[in-house]
Amino acid sequence: MENWNENKSTFWIFALPGTFWLVVFFMIPLAIIWALSFGEQVSLTKTEVTGTLEHYIRALGDPVYLKIIWKSIWMSALATFFCLLIAYPIAFLISFVRGRLKMILLAAVILPFWINLLIRTYALIAVFRSRGFVNFGLEWVYKTLAMDRLFGPFQPLELLYNNGAVILGLIYVFMPFMVLPLYASIERLDKSYLEASLDLGASQFKTFWRVSVPLTMPGIVSGIILVFIPMLGSFLIPDLLGGTNAQMIGNVIERQFKAANNYPFGAALSFLLMYATFAALALRAWHASRSKGNDV
Amino acid sequence: MKRRYSPMMTSRRKFLAGSGAVAAGLTFAPYKSFSAEEKKINFYNWDTYIGETTLDDFNSATGIEAKMDLFADNDELFAKLKEGNPGYDVIVPTNDYVERMITADMLVPIDHNKIPNFSNIEKSFQEATFDPGRKYSLPYMWGTIAMGYRKSKVSAAEADTWATVYESDKFAGRIALLGDAQNVIGHALKLLGFSLNSKDPAEIKQAEELIIAHKKNFKVFADDNGQDLLASGEVDIAQEWNGDILQVMEEDDDITLNVPKEGGLLWQDCLCIAKGAPHPENAHAFMNYLLDAKAGAAIADYIQYATPNGAAKKLMDKEYINNTAIFPGEATLANCESAIFLGAEATKLYDDAWTRINAA
Fold first, then answer.
1. pLDDT in tens, A118-137
2. In this complex, do A161 and B220 lie within 8 Å of one another by their Cβ atoms?
3. Superfamily of domain B143-265+329-359
């Protein structure tokens, strides 16, 4: 039997495309941005890397930037939590139905991907604005129940241009990234474990917490990471759905690369965000290893 | 800076027919090459910012094939050309970006001997503070930032001062401001009696505090859809580019616009040749053609922006010339200011203030 250890050339040929991709499209751009964050603008079009720390000092010196990063973190965390809450039952449902229906449900999750993000977000505006479909529907119910005679004319709900709208938009846009890894791990879950648990007297609730959740934990973790990290850097959704204080760190960074024309500061902010993400991941890993130690 | 769309965009069929005609014109353009340059030109322009058949007509008149690409805002234009010209000849930056690009050495001087139609331009537009002697830029269209509002909700007197937006609580939650630092802070500076282009940190701070104090009154900082919010009834007042509001005025009689008495931003989009342009000869011919009386009138008629072309204006109907939403009165214009390029330091001041305003 062949062992890849003994057939190194085959291994390297297969590893080449991936390595190429990682280096050219990930490591090099990241290195450029990292270098830029220590740069100084010498003219409108040129930046020289001088090793200055002024951009980090500016970002950490004014509490407003840390405040915005913190806000981005809790908004994303909240949206990720709701994503998980909604996606888990969906993924469970998809993995338990059979045949055609399964295909249809999977397609329903994936189909929105085929429509441009910008257009989907504009569609949300049409749904939630004061004179949008949700308010039209509510008004119809309100009038049908003759509530306008009791409480006066219908007041449309202000559903857009606030933090709630941004969180809703984030959940809506990133939901498929949560459903798919969850579905993959639930699909792999050996359903006879669930039957065994129920047969041996555990309640549905207990079976879910003690069997389903631990066994699908890899899917939950990868779903959270896949959803939380892009949410943290999003700028289009707060821009379109948010009110006057919806600004997330992605908006500030985008502005540095466009209107403010300050690449080094934008680069420094991007890396601060990245360090924060790394710190969160490291904390999780540390926590995981510690709790494992306690179990033993 | 974000952008304004043409009021004429309402007719999609017209637009499609127009682009079809352009495409046909481009496809069947004869490849005759008598001069040293190939008969081509690459035009980088705003969306729906040229006459329906202008490129086609230019092709019939000169045999030069004009290809047009679109950008959405000045920042995009600047970012695209910053790392080197990808092949554009004629570009259409706004006045402060003309200045910025001159400073950054991104434009080619214009040979005025090749632009005889420059005499069509009104005297006041033949000079420009941002480009003395018009060495790098020719005026294309101009306009203002104004207050768009619902006549049924807002009185004409209230619409005549920025205080209604920045100070009064009467329209709390019914106001949309623009979505960029310089315009939102700039018009607050105007209200406070300062220059729209102030570089004084104390004045900028004062404007920042004014905006933060009344922030609860603003529904949204709308990047480029204030006119839609106004039209859909989401807000009663929108600070917007005049061309954008004109677009919804066509559809809704209750909407109108006014430049408040403190004045607003006066903008001018210019035709420039980008450094490294592959066809500078044709670029001159093309710019000269756009300044032609008949061609200029056809463009203005289609896009409904104010033209600086006096000869073209003579060919236009009264409805266009007397429209105060397109051409504000002299008294109003006297209080308006053009944006100047502020330099890196002041840009940072505005950006920091804007970050704090948004985070407040």
1. 999 999 999 998 888 999 99
2. yes
3. Periplasmic binding protein-like II (3.40.190.10)
